[in-house]
Write a structure and sequence with these properties.
This protein is of the alpha+beta class. The chain has a domain of 128 residues: Mannose-Binding Protein A, subunit A (Mannose-Binding Protein A, Chain A), CATH 3.10.100. 54% of the residues lie in helices and 11% in strands. It has 4 helices and 9 strands, in the order ααββαβαββββββ. The strands form 2 sheets. Strands 4, 5, 6, 7 and 8 form a 5-stranded mixed beta sheet that branches. Strand 4 and strand 5 form a beta hairpin. The radius of gyration is 52 Å and the shape is rod-shaped. Keywords: Disulfide bond, Lectin. This is C-type lectin domain-containing protein. GO terms for molecular function: carbohydrate binding. It comes from Oreochromis niloticus.
Length: 270
């Protein structure tokens, strides 16, 4: 059986629940009334239409801003592309300018070289045949035309018909002297190319025994590294205008076409 105390406890709990329910009901009613008032105050039909119009205007503004952004981006890309083309053109024109400058410098040096030969050519007219130059009291012939190429024997035949022969280099001073003159007459070239000058040296009679055309033995040579190597019967010597004149000789096949240097005694120097 329940005690009086328990009954009172349950009654108190029930009353509390009823009061709580009443309070919740009142709050619910109050919120409903307040919501209705808000609806009546802030969300009239005109306001709804106004808000809808503002939303449409905002969308239009957004679309316009997006279109402007796209247009601006397109112009920016066009400017970047144009700037890139301008940069490429500037690079191209700068390279052309440098090439022209290099070409002008090369021509200027060649002109100065030819000017330095004018006195020798002038004296050569007095003491040497036409086309020969006078240097160190000796007449020399350098073929200047680009298509003047001969074999070693043909070069000797040409020199002999002119009363001379291929040059003989029997001292360091002469090597330097001929090298500088040959360098002035011919731009630097790679070994084994035909752009070199025959000299009067060969080992045709005995392989490995190098002699000048007058029969004297070679005492000091100015061979390139690894030369002479007698690859494919290379029995004739040529002078190549290289940076290091101590390494300016190569042995070459005697039937190779290249330039040559003749020498001969001048006419009376009196």
């Amino acid at each position: 059986m329940f005690s009086v105390r328990s009954v009172r406890h349950y009654r108190l709990t029930a009353v509390s629940l009823l009061l709580l329910a009443a309070v919740l009901l009142i709050l619910n009613i109050g919120l409903g009334v307040h919501y209705n008032k808000l609806t009546d105050t802030y969300f009239t039909l005109d306001d709804t239409e106004r808000i809808s119009k503002e939303l449409i205007d905002l969308q239009d503004t957004y679309k316009t801003a997006v279109e402007r952004m796209k247009s601006t981006k397109k112009r920016l890309n066009s400017n970047i592309s144009h700037q890139k083309l301008t940069s490429w053109e500037l690079e191209h024109q700068t390279k052309r300018s440098n090439d022209y400058k290099s070409h002008i410098d090369k021509i200027t040096k060649e002109i100065e070289t030819m000017r330095s030969y004018l006195p020798m050519l002038s004296d050569g007219c007095k003491h040497c045949p036409a086309g020969w130059i006078l240097m160190n009291s000796v007449c020399y012939y350098f073929p200047l035309k680009s298509n003047e190429m001969k074999t070693w024997k043909e070069s000797r035949d040409f020199c002999q018909l002119q009363g001379g022969d291929l040059i003989i280099i029997d001292s360091q001073d002469e090597e330097v002297y001929y090298y500088e003159d040959a360098s002035g007459m011919m731009p630097q070239s790679n070994p084994k190319s035909p752009k070199a000058f025959w000299i009067g040296l060969s080992d045709v009679q005995e392989e490995g025994t190098w002699k000048w055309w007058d029969g004297t033995f070679l005492t000091e040579g100015y061979w390139n590294d690894g030369e002479p190597n007698d690859v494919s019967n290379e029995d004739c010597a040529a002078l190549y205008p290289k940076a290091n004149f101590f390494k300016s000789w190569n042995d070459v096949r005697c039937d190779t076409q290249m330039k040559w240097i003749c020498e001969k005694a001048p006419k009376s120097m009196s």
